[in-house]
Amino acid sequence: MEWLLLLCVALSLSLARANSSYDYFRLPTALRPQKYDLRILTIMENVEDLRFNGTVKIQIEALQNTKNITLHSKDLTIDESQITLRQISDEGSPENCITSTEVNPTHDFYILNTCQELLPGHIYELNLPFSAKLQEQLAGYYRSSYVDPVANKTRWISITQFEPASARLAFPCFDEPGYKAPFVITLGYHKKFTGLSNMPVKETKPHESLPDYVWTEFEESLPMSTYLVAYTVNDFSFKPSTLPSGTLFRTWARPNAIDQCDYAAEFGPKVLQYYEELFGIKFPLPKVDQIAVPDFSSGAMENWGLVTYTEGALLYSAEYSSQGDKQDLANTVAHELAHQWFGNLVTMNWWTDIWLNEGFATYVASLGMENVHPEWRSMQFQSVSNMLTIFQKDSLESSHPISRPIEVVSQISESFDEISYEKGSSVVRMMHLFLGEESFRTGLKSYLEKYAYKNAEQENLWESLTEAAHKTGALPKDYTIKTIMDSWTLQTGYPVINVTRDYTARTAELTQERYLLNTNISREHRDGCWWVPLSYTTQEEKDFNNTSPKAWMECNETGDSLPRTIKDLPGPDQWVIFNNQLSAPYKVNYDAQNWKLLIETLNSDEYQTIHVVNRAQLIDDVLYFAWTGEQQYDVALQVISYLHRERELLPWKAAFDNLRSINVIFRQMPNFRSLKGYIKKLITPIYEHLNGINDTDLSIQHPDQILLRSMVANWACTYQISDCESQSLSYFRKWRSDVNPDENNPVPISFRSVVYCTSIKRGSDEDWEFLWTRYQKANVANEKETIMDSLACSLEVWQLQRYLEINFDPKGEIRKQDSASVFQSIASNKIGFLLAKKYLMDNVVSISKFYHPQYEYMAELLPPLSDQIFTRKDYHEFKTFISKSKEQLKDIEQATNQSLEIILTNVQWKERNYEKFTSALQKFL
Q1: Is 701 helix (H, G, I), strand (E, B) or coil?
Q2: Tens digit of each residue's pLDDT (9 = 90 or more) over 576-613
Q3: What is the domain range of residue 464?
Q4: Is the pLDDT of residue 41 over 80?
Q5: What CA–CA distance (Å, rounded) separates 470 from 450?
Q6: What top-level class of enzyme does the UniProt entry assign (predicted)?
Q7: Which one of 9, 317, 589, 612 is at 20 to 30 Å from 739 when CA atoms are compared?
Q8: Is residue 30 located within the same domain as residue 153?
């Protein structure tokens, strides 16, 4: 990101200006804000000039002698002639002033040099007037719009998005999470609008000079970091909810979408109440507002008391949203409300520990969903999904530790990734399982109470949990949480545990090494050691519910792994399975005999005696080991050949996730026919068992089965299995022939993505135009998202090319927040892949400008391309493109490194495994 500081100073500039000599990336520690008084007037009457101006009064305490005040400010016009500074604590002269200002464009610093030295122990009040345009970029204080269908007019609203470092775009401030302070926010706006902020309204009164304008002052907030400050001026409606605690709970949306707020308004209060019980700490604010914003970059944002969402993440329509949409919505709301404690009440000290926010909120959200909707089995689904994600991402050498050093702003944005969220969640779950309920909850409560309204680091959490674990006896006295958990949070990657059994002695020798996809990295370089809680069960016991460790893999003081011998195992006729219900993020590879025993059970009527999560684990592990050469594909295909019996979601998810990687390479190769035949054979029994895509008995199906049906249908139509295609086309024709297609849609909700995609793939230009018109007229975000993805299924080159151009048109009908998703859909299409790759390479400069300054979007364009490149020639071409585009891709270095590594592992697979996999397939056809 080009973090340029454009402090366009008013013409009345009366102070000297210089570039700053202070060049450290963190604020100096001489001062601390004690309180902000922020007044913002938002003018939205002139569409050509949407803008705001305001003043911020900051009470600042001096902790050391200093002659300057360093703040963050970016793209703000500051009228320096109006700046005032005075001492407001008792002793000494109250008057002070500013002699000159400096800027540091690299770090967005705005430095004010003072007439007199600021002295420790004294409080000063700095008053800064500022103004700026309401930006089109989706960061800082910006504008969003929607079309009012009754008046057929565009309506404008204003909204904030400050995480991680964009409060500085809205007002000058100490824009680091460690500088918490209370805020008094006052919003000025036309009286036809509503103003919302973190706290309830204190009073509203007429503006002193602007007719029809009002000032709304909000109650003083609790101490909070600048990234959690939020406010909006809008003309939305709300749906109220009631909470037994008396907390006011409202769900807001544009007026013509208010009927889509019911589910979020019902689910949100339930999950908030559960968290109060879980943490033993009452929600500390008097109200929660959650609001669906038409243009929003982050999916959702946990601002304290004013939680913001994209429409697709908060709004639900029984007529248009699928079961998957509903579960995603609940997961997002549960995640953001978990942040009200983890992140808002206790905040990480610096972005190094962003995982303390995100990993905890991800894990706690699955606890919240399980509590409100036990029938969804969210804990199981989320834990397996998270593991599948990190096994892929964290097996790259270019991955990073959960807790990582942050030294520039672009690295903060890069840290909001699968490692902070999914891996963070997985290690928290592991800790919950080895500590047990009592120690875990006691430790968390102690941590949250001790650091409430303050900042903390992971060390602080380790201390609270160790104390609780020793008190309850959950951990031996010579073990500490720090020793165990630092091995998971401070080093990159995860281990594979190699289990070699001695069937005569009834023992197993366990060793560990880092698991890497890049097979060029030699064994001696796969170093690292993890403290691994070992849970396991045998064919006789089958006690998969015991997830407590029976033993540990330990590391010595120099960080080397100590081998572990497990005794009293069964004889050569019984298998053993390690990592019950995937209780920790590691893979397990067994000796040949143990795999043989597992294959025999899976391919018998006894397959369900292995827990469903461990069935998913065995599929995922063996397919990874075959990919990297630690297992033969003969063995891997024997494991998954049992799937013709499997009727549960998770093992199929594991299989599909792995087969997808092989499929995207194979579909460009001459032997694709063999894979096609194999997949048809594998999927036909489950497709027919689930009654294809016939919309019968959907109402009485378990949610898992609904998700499985749509997943299987997707593959079935792709591989032309049974009646999948013909049935899809029939549904689509029926819809097209309806006189009122925007009101009546006969396509079953669960299968809309499959039906739309298949019909566009096999359809005419008129079919594409019909669906595009439905996109333009749709009022439900989930339906719009489904249509956007489906339009990318076309096999017509010109149509896809036109779609790419529509997608990156700043004035086009696809919102910027959706453009990366549309690009991914086009690139995932076998015809669209080459077009999307060429389009990115030819237009990288204009695409980079399109996303400015939120360059993190650029990172989302690379994976669908790198996943499908597998020749050395194309690898070098992509590497050259990245090297030539350094300027446009400079803030997504992590993403470019990971993309190149993924291509390299694809190249290795093709060269090592293509022939072997093809011949292994023949035996199963």
Answers
A1: coil
A2: 999 999 999 999 999 999 999 999 999 999 999 999 99
A3: 349-489
A4: yes
A5: 18
A6: hydrolase
A7: 317
A8: yes
